Amino acid sequence: MTNADINMSPEKPLWSVLWARRVVIAVTLVLGVFLSVVVLRLLKPDYTATSNVLLVSDGGSQDSSSVSSDMPTIATSSVVLDRVRQKLHLDMDLKALKKGVVARVSPHSNIMQISFKNPDPQTAMMLSNGIADAFVAYYASLSGRRYDQVTSQLSAELANAKQHLDQLQAQLESSAARRSFDGTDSSLDDITNQLNDLQEQRGVANASLVSDYGELAGLQADAADFAPADRHVLLESDPTFRNLEADVAKNAAMLASMRAEYTDSYPGLAGLEDKVQHEQSELSAQAQALTSAPHAYSSSALQRLSEMRKIGALVAGDRARVNSIDSEIATARQELSNAPGSPAQSVGALRSERDAANAIYQALALHLGNALANRAEATALGAAIVVNYAVSAETGLAGPRTLIVLAAIAVLLAAFGAGYLVEMLDPRLHSRERVELLYGQPVIATLGGGREETA
Amino acid sequence: MTNWTPGDIDFEILRSSVEQSSSPPAIIAVCSAAAADGKSLTAFGLTATLMQAGHRALLLDANLAHPALTAVRETGLRYEMIGERVFSDPVTGVDVISFASAGATGGRESMPSTKQLRVLLATLRNRYDFIVVDTERIPASRTALQLAGLSDGVILVCRAGRMPTDDDQYMVRALDNAHTRILGVVTATAASIKQFSTRIRLAPEPKRVIRESSVGNTSEGPLPHRVVKSATT
User: Cα–Cα–Cα angle for A423, A426, A432, nearest 5°?
Assistant: First the structure.
């Protein structure tokens, strides 16, 4: 192309500009096509598979506010992910696993989405579904565990009561065999009956105590399990802590970089170390202040705390009642030991004691039954269910045909843009306006300007 | 009719611009700031087009650096200058006067003095309707500026697509200082300049030297038209 190709018409049409810069456009097109091919070949899309888990709250209500903040943290916790690794026999380390997983609950929804991103769509689907399964199993174990302690303690008490009942039954049978008739002593029988009544009351009170205490222990274990999640939610929601955390991370990275690059004699190193230490202590203090504040609880933690206080009050009440009955029993026994004919017991007294032991046994059995029913209810209602397994993985990138079309459009635009830009930046006298501007005179004729010529 | 017709609407536009200007100039200097900008093309085409339109037109070749219009090498003809100084270009039929000396392109010794130029132009003004002067580029020639000053109007020529230079600004300032009347700017594409050179085949070297004294005498005697002495080399 030579200058002869430049049209001196006052308003140069676009096609004329493009034709004049056809070499630039052609070169840009070739380069653009080459780059597009390279980029399209290097582009490795990430696939994302998503499983949906329905979260059922304790009361069976549709309000997800008490669970939504904790559940994603539990779903992506090390416990769940480690179970996934073991179950699927993965070579992937925990950090990489944690990096690929995202769990979120939309506002006003009980559905938690567990997504996993991986270059391989099959792996993404497998891990998304695996994490959903592991989360559901772990959450089910957490929901029922508070009642496991109640049932185990009640079962132990029930076994003791059964043993006591069997002993009394044996004594009763032995006494009945020795005596041909029931000799009665009214004063002894009164004391014995009173004692048996007290024993029965104590048994019932003790059964309540054991049941409530077991429930309290279960709640405490729950609180311990959820504490990291609560703490995480609490700290994540505090902007000051997050800013401090970002600063510490940045300065620690800078310190590590300087340590790698310089020796200990580098003057800025000590100052930076002091700064990082100071910021870390500030971060710890902020975390301590946040977690120790009276209001420093997440909604679900507050719910657990309230329940623990309520059950604790019940346990205290049960214990006081048992202690009171114990003192009354001690008094009755004292009276019994001082009464004439003691300690010999009549068959009637033994029968009364057996009946009392039987009542205790029945009370304990009733509590155990209730505890088992509660556990079943908790497992059913305070649970999570996988409602939608991932069956496909999708990528954010468009399909290959669309990408090729987009690349072609981009290359064409870039080529035409380059041609037009070169034309605009060219200082040569290739337009009537520039000539008139240079000489301050009008152009009165253009020789050869009406033709497209090639030198 | 001329033998060479530009046949281009562009020259017709140029002629029309000259003819229809407020006071049509009789002597038109064609100037440029750079070499090979298309001065000869413009001067030659304008003269031919004026002749085609029925005017008495003369081309005065004052471009000693590139005296492209003095002879036709291909024809092998020789031309007498005034009395032997005016000749008709055998290719174009355009009346031409050249200051170029024979044998040495760019020889300054053949250029008339300012006084001689005044006399010559006054004489020619009486005999022609239009005298088109092809000059050297102004920054390189004081004579070109003198001719522009002696003319009634100046046409600036610029090759389309070349880089602007300081010479362009210098030329505009110099013409302004000389109080010349600039008619406008003509732009010429490189292709049209090349085409002109190819078609006209102008040989730069005339065989006869114009004597200084003979220029002065031109005001006295009649200027013969198309005085051509043919001779084969």
Answer: 80
Higher pLDDT, B176 or B69: B176
Element at A115 (helix H, strand E): strand A111-118
Residues of chain A with pLDDT under 70: 1-12, 57-69, 146, 176-188, 293-299, 339-348, 379-382, 396-399, 449-455
B92 vs B117, which has greater pLDDT?
B117
Other CB atoms closer than 10 Å to residue A221's CB: what's the count?
Answer: 15
Q: Which of A244, A243, A231, A254 is nearest to A280 (CA)?
A: A244
pLDDT digits 0-9 by tens, B168-184: 999 999 999 999 999 99
CA distance B54 to A269: 95
Amino acid at A272: L
Residues of chain A contacting residue B159, judged by C-beta atoms under 8 Å apart: 3, 429
> How far apart are the CA of B14 and the nearest CA of chain A, in angstroms?
5
Which residue out of B189, B194, B196, B198 would a mutagenesis test of the A interface target, given it has the greatest number of A Cβ atoms within 10 Å? Answer: B189
Q: Has the ipTM of the complex gone over 0.90? A: no
Is the Cβ pair B158, A440 closer than 8 Å?
Answer: no
- Tell me which chain A residues have a C-beta less than 8 angstroms from the C-beta of B189: 3-4, 6, 8, 446-449, 451, 453
Instruction: Give the up-direction half-sphere exposure of residue B95: CA atoms within 13 A in the CB hemisphere.
Output: 23
CB contact under 8 A, A444 and B9: no
Burial of A366 (C-beta count, 10 Å sphere; 0-12/13-18/19+): middle
Q: At CB < 8 A and 24+ separation, what contacts does B197-201 make? A: B197/B68, B199/B4, B200/B4, B200/B44, B200/B68, B200/B91, B200/B92, B201/B72, B201/B73, B201/B74, B201/B91
- SS3 labels along B163-188: CCCHHHHHHHHHHHHCCCCEEEEEEE
With a pLDDT cut of 90, the percent of chain B lying above it is 27
Kindly list the residues from chain B whose CB atom is less than 8 angstroms away from the CB atom of residue A455. 190-191, 194
> Token pair of A452, please?
């497209």
Contact B80, B214 (CB under 8 A): no
Look up residue A45 and give its DSSP letter. P
What pLDDT score does B82 carry? 38
CB A17 within 8 A of CB A416: no
Nearest CA in chain A to B154: A441
Cα–Cα distance measured from residue B199 to residue B46, given in angstroms and rounded to the nearest whole number? 16
Q: What is the CA radius of gyration of chain B?
A: 16
Interface check for B137 against chain A (CB to CB < 8 A): the answer is no
pLDDT confidence of residue B183: 93
- Is this prediction's pTM over 0.80? no
